[in-house]
Amino acid sequence: MAGGLSKAASKVAVLMGGPSAEREVSLVSGRACAAALREAGYQVVEVDCDRDLPVRLAEIKPDVCFNALHGRWGEDGCVQGILEWLNIPYTHSGVLASALAMDKARAKEVFARAGLPTVRSVIAAREDVSKGHILPPPYVVKPNNEGSSVGVYIVREGSNAPRLAETMPERVMVETYAPGRELTCAVMGDRALCVTDIITNGWYDFDAKYKTGGSRHVLPAELPTDITAACLDYALRAHNALGCRGVSRTDFRWDEARGLAGLILLETNTQPGMTPTSLAPEQAGHLGISFPAFCAWMVEDASCNR
Prior knowledge:
D-amino Acid Aminotransferase, Chain A, domain 1; four-stranded antiparallel sheet; Rossmann fold
């Protein structure tokens, strides 16, 4: 990281906010991380990111950037490229891994080559998706490069083709619906942490993720030994296949009736939510790693040129 500087001498710029659809979520994550890093002993500057970010960083002169941005621009390789150009070490994944993970279709190609289980999907024009079924129902329609379940449509059997909002991109992903339980597993460096079972009353959508009472987390998930082992293995393999670093989180669906064959990898998030009760910090806490220690580990892990 910052040349062996002490925490007291290390200045950390926490990047948050930004222009994406996940701006408000990022602000919550960023403020929580900033508070945790101050508790851990770092000098912290909170940065609500805009197009003047390079100028602001030149003024702040941080030793490290803690990237708490979510969504496009902040986790798709763009900000990572700026930080590489400025030669400022930063947390989480580098340019290529960030871009790959954010592009759901290309990430699935990487997962398939790594032997990881995914469902069939295609990229189609928004207009064509609204005219008729691109895949046999049930299926899911979503942007190819957004997170936090932004713009997700579930098309059930017997339903008409979805009328997609004008705010949806011109081309979207259409993916076979994977039934079953919602599971997730975070990776910290070279270690898969544990598996969380996410309990909701319906789809794990934006409200279920972020509104009070929207979901309940059971960790470690009460699963057969082989399913737990597979989740841990697949999450670490997905992290490595994409070339991630720092912390990532991989989401799964598991159809209990099909056993191991019913475990499907949905996607890997290189910038998981970072409040004390978010999924990845919860898993770290379950293993005895406090939220300030978790954030400090990411700062110490920060690097460039990867």
